[in-house]
Amino acid sequence: MRAYLSNGKIPKTLSAKQKTSILFVCTGNICRSPTAAGVFAHLVRQAGLEDSIHVESAGTHDYHVGQPPDERAQAHAKQRGYDLSALRARQVRRRDFTEFDLIVAMDRGHLEILQHNCPPEQRGKLRMLIKGRDIPDPYYGGPEGFDRVLDLVEAACLALISELRESPRS
Prior knowledge:
Strand order of the largest sheet: 2-1-3-4
CATH superfamily: Response regulator
Mean pLDDT: 90
Number of helices: 5
CATH topology: Rossmann fold
CATH class: Alpha Beta
């Protein structure tokens, strides 16, 4: 059974009885957010927290619904040991705002869209992956963009795991 926190706070402890659910969001759900979800899910498994944390990703737009992550995103992730192949793009749904404990935007534009669509009582669940910093969109660039996204996402996801484990918030 999942615990849903209407105040947007992270549970004090992570246990098998209380699952924290996290949704990573970008534009089309084929580059940044599936990369973040794949990296974060991998780190969750490494930390032995797969019974405590549920991870998904979605897009603010419906451009790629049902499609796998961008082949370049998958290839770069695979080089670092992350498998994104099972993921499929979907658009953020209204119910996501109540079903997820944290909704993590990849850039300020995504955060603004989420804030606009989110019920006021759920807005405390919204945040950037890196406070005050956008994860750049690699879609129209070269391979270095996908590596940069992975660098930023790996560091931010490690920090988020630590935050979830150690947060005194209730």
